Amino acid sequence: MTAALVFDLSLCLLIAAVALAAVLADDLFTAIVLFIVYGLLAAIAWVRLDAIDVALAEAAIGAGLTGLLLVGAAARLGGRGAPPAAGRTPWRLLGKAAPAALCVAAAAALVVLVLALPDDAPGLRPLVAETIAASGVTNPVTAVLLNFRGYDTLLETIVLAVALVGVWSLTPDRDWGSVPGARQHARPDGVLATFGRLLPALGLLVAAHLLWAGADAPGGAFQAGTVLAAVWLVVVMAGVLPAPATADTRVRLLLVAGPAAFLGFGAVGAAGGVFLGHPAGAAKATILAIETALTLSIAATLGLLVLGVPRRPA
Amino acid sequence: MILDIATLVLASAGVVFFIAGTLGLLRFPDVYARLHALTKADNLGLGLIALGLVLQAGNVWQALKIVLVWLLAIFAAATVSQLIARSALVQRSSSPAARDS
Question: Is B9 at the interface with chain A, CB within 8 A?
Fold first, then answer.
């Protein structure tokens, strides 16, 4: 048994154990923390599978952002979301046993399917490798996301915007267009304020690097956008910058800039024969332009998703 | 060979600090003591592991990136632990039971 195998097996067991603990946790907050741990472990598993792009997305969005959204939701519930503490009633057990049974069934089906896969299944990899030279980038993941199957990514970014519309639609009439999120109480000379001024310098650099590196290494708009969103949220929490009013036209333009740029270039491609097609020779430039706009829009959308429902005047 | 041994020693020492920190997290009586155990041990533990990995880095840039990760983790941990301690302090001073004791 090699060391790598021992590591992989322990990782698998750990993931399963943490998933089980998250599902069985009595307390909402405990379950969320375990869910975040689960996401981070899953990211390590993706690294072990050599899928660095997926690992970055899982760590940033699956564990980080989703965990943050869940913590925010639990805080808004204020304990009301916790199950009643009065013993293990049959209904409560059923409420946990039924989803658990469903998950076990789904997992078993997946195991059967994966084991039934042919050993040597190259999938679309040869096709991507064959045509990647024309895609304008050398990272196959970016080539697929922004060129070969651009409409998937386009629809994903639109789904994000729709999610934010869903959150905003919960706004009471009197607060419509006001500032989202709680009022921040960071002391101007405190540790958080210092961190909020220190982090952007490095965070912006990391985001720009992820965006630029996406062309020929793991990275891209989603990862860069998430880093940008995280930095922005710290800056807002630290009181360095105020949260914007959701009625601000600049904010709304920023939110739609990415999908709009994507659609715009797509329409240009349509004029040339293929919707979402890139002009020959200039694919790298258009991909980079779209990814830059997407990064800004994704960052704004994710940040505002976390800040939540508008609830206080500017 | 010597580098590999140094990495093993440093990383193992780091793991010991992580174990000590985890033990503190589980056994110490209140929030402040638990934070003390976690931040001290985690920063040093992560630092030792990072130092061990730096020795395995292929070039200077990789080594600098590992050091950067460590620095970022220290900054984030220091900020977050300060926030947790402050929030625990606010909670304690506002709860009637704690005011009586």
Answer: no
**CA nearest to B78 within chain A:** A191
Residue A212 CB partners (closer than 8 Å, separation 6+): A219
Tokens of B5: 């041994």
The two structure tokens encoding residue A148: 């070969």
| Residue A117 DSSP symbol | S
Domain that holds residue B81: 2-100
B89 inside 8 A of chain A by CB: no
Write the CA distances from A258 to A33, A301, B101, integer angstroms. Answer: 32, 10, 57
Interface predicted TM-score (ipTM) of this complex, two decimals: 0.82
Instruction: Select from B25, B74, B79, B83 the residue whose CB has the most chain A CBs within 10 Å, as the one to mutate to test that interface.
Output: B79
Q: Is B78 on the interface with A (CB under 8 A)?
A: yes
**Number of folded domains in chain B?**
1
- pLDDT tens-digit map of B42-51: 788 999 999 9
Look at A199 and B78 and tell me if their CB atoms are within 8 Å.
no
The nearest CA of chain B is from the CA of A204 a distance in Å of: 14
Summarised one tens digit per residue, pLDDT across range B58-72 is: 889 999 999 999 988
Those residues whose C-beta lies under 8 Å from the C-beta of residue A306, and which sit 6 or more positions away, are: A65, A68, A69, A72, A181, A229, A233
- Comparing CA positions, the residue from A64, A11, A107, A86 lying closest to residue B76 is A64
* Count of other CB atoms within 10 angstroms of residue A247: 13
CB B7 within 8 A of CB B56: yes
* Beta carbons within 8 Å of A165's beta carbon, 6+ residues apart: none
Q: B12 to chain A nearest CA, in Å?
A: 16
